Amino acid sequence: MHDTGTRSILTGERTDNITYAILYDFSSSFSRLDGALFSSFPAITSLIFRTPMIRNPEA
């Protein structure tokens, strides 16, 4: 079986979803706030995607 998964950056745990790995590492560094992370995921996502537009008004 091929190892197509990605290792979680900080924890070293295997996952097939690089985005989850990054977000999981982010939440882990804040006392494993997994539930809070997923409940606030829409807000986090909107911040991430809105930031470049704020920096570049012409976009």
Largest sheet: 2 strands, antiparallel
Shape by Cα distribution: extended
- Based on DSSP secondary structure assignment, what is the total number of beta strands? 2
- What portion of residues is helical? 40-55%
Strand content is: 5-15%
Short description:
The chain is mainly α and 59 residues long. It is built from three helices and two strands, in the order ββααα.
What's the structural blueprint in terms of helices and strands?
Blueprint: E1 6-7, E2 14-15, H1 18-28, H2 34-39, H3 41-55
Antiparallel strand pairs: 1-2
What does this structure look like?
It is a single chain. This protein is mainly α and about 60 residues long. The chain has one domain (about 5-55). About 55% of the residues lie in helices and about 5% in strands. The protein is built from 3 helices and 2 strands, in the order E-E-H-H-H. The chain has helices at about 20-30, 35-40, 40-55; strands at about 5, 15. The protein has a two-stranded antiparallel sheet. The longest helix has 15 residues, at about 40-55. Residues about 1-5 have low confidence and may be disordered.
